[in-house]
Amino acid sequence: MSHPLMFDDDDPVLVRLRAATAGLPQVVERVSHGRPHFRAGQRGKGFAVYGGGVKVRPGEHERHDQAVLFKPDPAEVGALDTDPRFWVPAYYGPSGWRGLDLDLRRTDWAEVAELLDASYRLVATRRLLAELDDHG
């Protein structure tokens, strides 16, 4: 089943998110379920998704189209859960993922880069981690 695209390729927030992933080794972007997914390597696991939603009640979701979903360092989950900027995304939340709404002017992009780095490190192979640490 094909999903409709839920993003605009020219969205400046997505462009900025792509730039934030550019410093990570061998990031692959693929569209899955209508949204851009970022993976650590060609066959690697996902570490970020652009856009998501929150389940409001059965069959109803609140969309967060300009957001990043990421897998936080387990030691940081408690702190993120006390920060109202972060939310538990539908489908990904049970696996520990969190979401953060993005805005070109108000978002702390250095913080986003740190979150992406931590998420990448949770799924990357040892070879990719060594490459990241060698160039980081």
From TrEMBL:
The keyword Disulfide bond does not apply. The keyword DNA-binding applies. One of its GO terms (molecular function) is DNA binding. Keywords: DNA-binding. InterPro entries: YjbR-like_sf, YjbR/MT2646/Rv2570-like. It holds the Pfam family YjbR. This is MmcQ/YjbR family DNA-binding protein. It comes from Nocardioides euryhalodurans.
